[in-house]
């Protein structure tokens, strides 16, 4: 009986230690990823603007469908504080340090090319527009009218159903 009790206690201690290790690793991961991600302000911190209080869709249409993913929601209130500048300076310093090391080993050009790929990827990523930010379409077409020569959905459907001369 004592052997079973000792084995049970050892197993319980092992599980507790494994859980503690997992929690420490999760905390380290959250800390590390938090350094590279900008945190969205809490809803209580955001001030509603006049445009944000007006519903864009009728109530029945607004209730349909799931909410947009987190990366497509607007992040308002990100003013670029002092901490953001410090983090940017650290990132630039790290980049230049690694570039210097690569130049010392004559891999400077390869380093620039390899690091350009993620920079281009993250710079061209899709994100939601912020309130008041003009869309690319509305910059060139302020009233969002149909532009001559563009293919509309209705025209496309007519051409598919009745042939190209039906429009």
Automatic annotation (TrEMBL):
Residues 92-160 form the SAYSvFN domain. It comes from the Eukaryota. Pfam families: SAYSvFN. Residues 38-75 are annotated as: Disordered. The keyword Methyltransferase does not apply. PANTHER family: SAYSVFN DOMAIN-CONTAINING PROTEIN 1. This is SAYSvFN domain-containing protein 1.
């Amino acid at each position: 009986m004592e052997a079973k009790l000792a084995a049970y206690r050892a197993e319980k201690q092992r599980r507790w230690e494994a859980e503690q290790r997992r929690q420490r690793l999760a905390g380290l991961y959250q800390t590390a990823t938090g350094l590279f991600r900008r945190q969205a302000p809490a809803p209580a911190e955001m001030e509603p603007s006049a445009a944000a209080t007006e519903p864009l869709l009728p109530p029945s249409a607004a209730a349909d469908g799931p909410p947009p993913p987190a990366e497509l929601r607007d992040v308002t209130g990100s003013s670029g504080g002092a901490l953001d500048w410090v983090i940017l300076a650290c990132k630039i310093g790290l980049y230049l340090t690694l570039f210097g090391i690569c130049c010392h080993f004559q891999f400077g050009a390869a380093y620039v090319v390899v690091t350009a790929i993620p920079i281009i990827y993250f710079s061209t990523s899709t994100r939601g527009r912020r309130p008041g930010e003009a869309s690319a379409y509305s910059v060139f077409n302020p009233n969002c009218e149909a532009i001559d020569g563009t293919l509309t959905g209705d025209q496309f459907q007519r051409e598919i159903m009745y042939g190209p001369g039906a429009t």
